[in-house]
Amino acid sequence: xxxxxxxxxxxxxxxxxxGAPDAPALLLVMGALASGLGWPEELVxxxxxxxxxxxxxxxxxxxxxWSFDEQPYPLxxxxxxxxxxxxxxxxxxxxxxxxxxxxxxxxxxxxxRPERVLSATLIGTGALSSVPYxxxxxxxxxxxxxxxxxxxxxxxxxxxxxxxxxxxxxERRVEHWxxxxxxxxxxxxxxxxxxxxxxxxxxxHHHAGTAHARADTFGMDRTEALAxxxxxxxxxxxxxxxxxxPPHAHHIAQAVRGAxxxxxxxxGHALPREVHAPLAAAILEHTGRTxxxxxxxxxxxxxxxxxxxxxxxxxxxxASRTPRHT
Length: 326
Hints:
Order of helices and strands: EEEHEHEHEEEHHHHHEHEH
Strand content: 15-25%
Radius of gyration: 19 Å
Number of strands: 10
Shape: globular
Structural class: alpha/beta
Number of helices: 10
Strand order of the largest sheet: 1-2-4-3-5-6-9-10
Helix content: 25-40%
C-alpha cells in the first residue's frame, strides 16, 4: 500500500508498506540522497514474509517533498521523519534497518527514542561515537583516524554533477554503483541500470539531489547513549565496503552496547542480487530473536508492547521499556 505522510509543515513523504498488517513492523531507512526504492524488491519481499515492511522516500528524494532550498533542515531531522512515519501508520515499535546515512539515522533513533525500537540493523555506516576502535592486539585507534572512503570514490565525488539529460544521468548513476559495489562481486550493470530506471520513473524526473550533502551535521554524536543502549543491534560487516571500509563495522560493534556482527561475503556498499539472500537471512534471524523475547515478556505479569506495534496489556508504561538481549 502506498500513501503520503505529513512529517513537518510543508513536508510530505511517500511511504509504502507491505506484508501482513499484524506482523512485527520493520522500517527500512535508506542512505543519503536515496529513494526508498533503493531497497531492492527481492529483498523487501523476503523480509515481508515475516514482517510488515515499511519503506519511504526521505525529504528531497523520490516522490517526497523537495524543499531543502526553501526550508533547510539538519540531518537529525531525517531521523525524526522516520519516527513520524511510524506514528502515521499507527506503529508503536518497529525493527529498524538502516543503510549508509540510514544507519546513522537508525543510531539516532536508538539513542533518542529507544522506546520505539524493537531492534536495529546497521549496514554500510559509521558509528556515531567517539569511542576508540580497539584492534585484536589491543591497540586503540581514535575514531577520527579510521580509514575514509576509497580514493576512487573520492575522485568520483569530486567531479561536478552536471545535467546532460536523463540517459547521461542514468549512466552516471550506474558508474557510481560500480564504484560502490566493491571489487569482490562481479558488477551487473544491467541490474543497476534497471534499478535506477525504476527510481527515475518513480521520482518523475532524473535530477540529482544534493540536499543531504548540504544539510547541517551538527549534534549527531551519541557516544554515551549507544554505549548504554538495551536495543538489540546487528552490525553487517561488508569486507569490500569502500565508503566505510574495515574496521568500521567492528568499531560500531564495539561502540554499541551488546551489538552482534555478521559478515556478508563479498558485500560492498551496494545491494546486488548476490547479497539479498544472506542479508535477509541475517536480518530475519536478528529480528526473530527479539520477537521471541517480546512474546516471552508479553506472557509475564505486566506485559509489554506487542511485536506489531500494539500496546500489550500491562499499563501505559509498557511501551517505554526497551527489549533485552537473548
